[in-house]
Design brief:
With 297 residues, this protein is α/β, with parallel strands linked by helices. The protein is built from 11 helices and 7 strands.
Length: 297
């Protein structure tokens, strides 16, 4: 029997893959490859240290820098061993989070000399609407998609390097070129890059699209984190690239502005950006008086 390594981006999807009956080992990659300090392709020690610090801060310290650093090192060590497998299968969504990760992994595959991989990018599934990603699929549903995997070609590997470089350098010119492509070798990239462009701070307000949606939710009367999440998710264009940790980070940034736009009431002054640290049900969110509905601001 051939040995198979499956790489995907989420713990929920990874768990479902492991239960799907599809032969092979499942490995889940963790990182936010569309943002933060890094260099294109395989990271050096300096890059790993910088990313560990960035990701620790992105969780509000919920994950320690040392834990993140060890996780990152283990991931690249695993990728180095991928040449020992007979087959590598990549399972990714069409969203910004997954497409930036997919392109980074493909760019990194040149270091251990890997040139072959199969890709499953499932951007829709019958009966699931809105469809955001693999985490919504049951083990049986994932198994039903397995025969649709496609072998990646040289053009796709080269294109992935181009995309990975754009994200690593946060190159606005490259982003614009990628977002305008009508026939990309990886067809989900233009929309993903476009969503990242929308997340850049507005020139007038300084707010990203996600921050604007969160502020709209709070101004409309959503006081709990659950209400805000539902409000924002309903107004996001599928596939949704962010999760609760990212949204809480955005709300905290609204409260941390020089002139705060929201007020957070709870056991601590900011929303916890990692699960299990503080009960989210204890928090309430309000627009600041100067920016409340009807204030004209």
């Amino acid at each position: 029997m051939k040995s198979v390594l499956h790489i995907t981006s989420g713990d929920v999807a990874g768990d479902s893959l492991a239960k799907s009956g599809i032969p092979g080992e499942v490995f889940v990659w963790h990182d936010i490859l569309y943002d933060g300090p890094r260099r294109p392709g395989w990271p050096d020690d300096y890059t790993l240290d910088a990313r560990a610090q960035f990701l620790s801060e992105a969780t509000g310290g919920g994950l320690s820098r040392q834990f993140v650093l060890e996780t990152l090192k283990a991931q690249y060590a695993k990728l180095e061993t991928a040449t020992r497998y007979d087959q590598l299968v990549l399972w990714f969504d069409a969203c910004l989070f997954d497409q930036s990760m997919l392109c980074h992994i493909l760019a990194c595959m040149r270091v251990p000399g890997m040139k072959n991989a199969d890709l499953l990018c499932i951007d829709a599934f019958p009966g699931i609407n809105p469809y955001h990603g693999l985490g919504q699929l049951s083990p049986e549903q994932l198994a039903s998609e397995y025969d649709r995997r496609q072998s990646l070609n040289t053009d796709q590997f080269c294109f992935a390097e181009r995309v990975d470089q754009a994200f690593a350098l946060q190159d606005p010119i490259a982003f614009k070129e990628l977002s305008d492509l009508s026939k990309a070798p990886l067809p989900w990239v233009p929309a993903a890059v476009t969503r990242w462009i929308e997340e850049q701070p507005d020139r007038v307000t300084g707010l990203s699209r996600l921050e604007k949606l969160a502020l709209e939710a709070i101004r409309s009367g959503c006081e709990t984190t659950a209400e805000v999440f539902s409000f924002v998710s309903a107004r996001e264009t599928p596939p949704q690239y962010w999760g609760d940790i990212t949204l809480w980070q955005k709300i905290n940034s609204l409260a941390d502005r020089q002139i705060p736009l929201v007020r957070i009431e709870g056991p601590v002054s900011r929303l916890p950006q990692w699960e299990g640290t503080t009960d989210l049900k204890l928090f309430r969110l309000y627009p600041t008086e100067a920016n409340s509905p009807g204030s004209g601001q």
